[in-house]
Amino acid sequence: MQPSQTLIEQAAAACARGTKGVALTGAGISVESGIPPFRGKGGLWEKIDPMKYAHIDALVSNPAEVWEVLFRGIGELLTTATPNAGHLGLQRLEQMGILQTVITQNVDGLHQKAGSSDVIEFHGTHAVLRCMGCHVRSDWQAITLDRIPPVCPCGAYLRPDVVMFGEPIDVGLLRRSQILSANCDVMLVVGTSATVEPAAYLPLIAKDRGAFIIEINPEPTPLTDRVSDVTLLGPAGEVMERIVAAVANIQGRSL
């Protein structure tokens, strides 16, 4: 079932009034790009034990196995993935002067590929490899994977620059995300279950400061009917296309 046009127009009207919009995105926005989620039905954690392969202790103790089971496959998938209408819709809202920043829990880099200019990657990025010794960063595409795990010129192993279980979120990114959430006038929560802290708390901060909360998810979440002002249940790409079209109509623009 698709959201009613009335709900779409309510969301579009809130967006059209906004000038300090923020989007909070999760794995659900990238499903239409062929990237499976980590959690939930069909998620990666149904197939592998995250504590065995996605914890920092596992990487330190057995980097080759973590690379073979987890990192290599994700990296190969992300190199071919392209943005879908959900990512492109958020970039279009930025062009319209509505959206300032995308805060994402994803590590796929698709918001940047779509053209979003300010992306806070809460959990890091798979597009960059970081040395576990000297901490120098390298582009994934510049590294050959004929040896697993790949080795830095300093002799230490390379790893994706992502936040693994057992590692902290970057305090600077968290603080900036909190400030943006507290000062936004509209927040779009797209494709996230809103259950993983500290990102899950950001819509509450925005709501408490008077922002209009638009939720776009395939299923209800803890935000639905409690925090969200408008909940649009459906695929992120399809719903975003409808919102952007409605905003463009309000602003008298052509798509």
Automatic annotation (TrEMBL):
Secreted in keyword set: no
Deacetylase sirtuin-type domain ranges (all copies): 1-253
EC number: 2.3.1.286
Enzyme class: transferase
Keywords carried by this UniProt record: Metal-binding, NAD, Transferase, Zinc
Keyword DNA damage appears in the UniProt entry: no
Record-listed Zn(2+) binding positions: 131, 134, 152, 154
Example GO molecular function: histone deacetylase activity, NAD-dependent
InterPro entries documented for this protein: DHS-like_NAD/FAD-binding_dom, NAD-dep_sirtuin_deacylases, Sirtuin, Sirtuin_cat_small_dom_sf, Ssirtuin_cat_dom
Catalytic center residues: 123
Name the record gives this protein: protein acetyllysine N-acetyltransferase
Organism: Desulfatitalea alkaliphila
